[in-house]
Design a protein that fits this description.
The chain is α/β, with parallel strands linked by helices and 328 residues long. The protein folds into two domains: 5-179, NAD(P)-binding Rossmann-like Domain (Rossmann fold, 3-Layer(aba) Sandwich), CATH 3.40.50; 184-325, N-(1-d-carboxylethyl)-l-norvaline Dehydrogenase, domain 2 (Orthogonal Bundle), CATH 1.10.1040. The protein has helices spanning 12-23, 35-44, 66-70, 85-92, 118-125, 140-143, 158-168, 181-203, 208-227, 239-250, 255-264, 269-275, 283-296, 302-312, 317-325; strands at residues 5-8, 28-31, 60-63, 75-78, 102-105, 130-135, 149-155, 173-178. An eight-stranded mixed β-sheet has the order 3-2-1-4-5-6-7-8, sandwiched between helices. The relative contact order is 0.11.
């Protein structure tokens, strides 16, 4: 019997995953928030808002009806921004009727105030689901164009991991299994803060040396933060750690790097977010949680501190940069 696969969220990454799964020969139901976007995917096989110039598979079945998409799903991919994950999971709970359904978290962030990873949030809201996290250097702009990419998935149920690997893995998208779910999620969340800082130094034309120092400091902070969650040290030196950190902190595709570049131009956060037309830079939200958690648990995170103060306390760019460069 064919297992029903659902993707919740038609942003760039959600659409890319749905398209790849459909290309791999598995029909996939895609929940789309905007009726106009649903119509475009259905009639033109395009997502011009979040994934322009990519022709989408006919195996994608878009719908704005959450019940129609999520009900009876055996595998469900949660691809909404981290700040909406709990709310969406609560809506999905009565619809997820398959015993032991697999839920895959692909959002890279921490829940504000609770400091939960997205997998922890999903386990709280979807009892009985087998929750898996996916993370790595996976820009949708490249995966959607079938550029060679590797990723990692992690969870407690090996059979569920192997099932997910089968539906995702192909010639250009290689999936590797890990046993440190929390570790890959911490990596995915914290590296976005470093990407904002890297975008700032790139925007200021400081050069490769400065960027490399910022990335190194970011890796150190990522590992420090992860220790408080009981993660494995080796995770930070793999695809979800160093791999994703390098990609996000150096790429033209990175939304977090984009935010940093615009800050370097002197623009305010509210103005930058309007410029992104609905796209989300997760680091803007994660830095709040990371900064607050670091204070409560006495974790030395100078880069995170300066990005937070710059974004939320009105610290001047010159002063923030001056204080940050003292730490590298």
């Amino acid at each position: 019997m064919t297992q029903k696969i659902a993707v919740i969220g038609a942003g760039g990454w959600g659409t890319t995953l749905a398209n790849m799964i459909a290309d791999n020969g598995h029909p996939v139901h895609l929940w789309v928030r905007e009726p106009e976007l649903k119509a475009e995917i259905e009639k033109k096989r395009q997502n011009s808002i979040y994934l322009p110039s990519v022709v989408l598979s006919k195996g994608i079945m878009p719908s704005t009806d959450l019940k129609k998409v999520a009900e009876d799903a055996a595998i469900l991919i949660m691809a909404v921004p981290s700040k909406f994950v709990r709310e969406m999971a609560r809506k999905i709970r009565p619809l997820l009727t398959v015993k032991g359904a697999i839920v895959i978290s692909v959002a890279k962030g921490l829940e504000h105030n609770t400091y939960r990873t997205m997998s922890q949030v999903l386990e709280e809201e979807l009892p009985g689901a087998r929750v898996i996290a996916l993370s790595g250097p996976n820009h949708c702009e490249e995966v959607s164009r079938k550029m060679p990419t590797a990723t990692v998935i992690a969870g407690r149920d090996k059979k569920a991991l192997e099932n997910v690997k089968k539906i995702l893995d192909n010639d250009y998208f290689k999936v590797y299994l890990l046993d440190d779910r929390t570790g890959i999620e911490i990596c995915g969340a914290i590296k976005n803060i470093t990407a904002i800082a890297a975008g700032i130094v790139d925007g200021l034309k400081y050069g490769d040396n400065t960027r490399a120092s910022i990335i190194t400091l970011g890796l150190t902070e990522m590992a420090r933060f992860g220790r408080a969650f009981g993660t494995k040290r080796a995770t930070f030196y793999g695809l979800a750690g160093v791999g994703d950190l390098i990609a996000t902190a150096t790429s033209k595709h990175s939304r977090n790097h984009f935010v940093g570049e615009k800050i370097a131009e002197g623009k305010k956060l509210e103005s930058i977010q309007k410029e992104m037309h609905g796209m989300v830079a997760e680091g803007v939200y994660t830095v709040k949680s990371a900064y607050e958690f670091s204070l409560k648990h006495n974790i030395d995170m100078p880069l995170t501190t300066q990005v937070y103060k710059l974004l939320y306390e009105g610290k001047s760019l010159d002063k923030a940069i001056s204080d940050l460069l003292k730490c590298i």
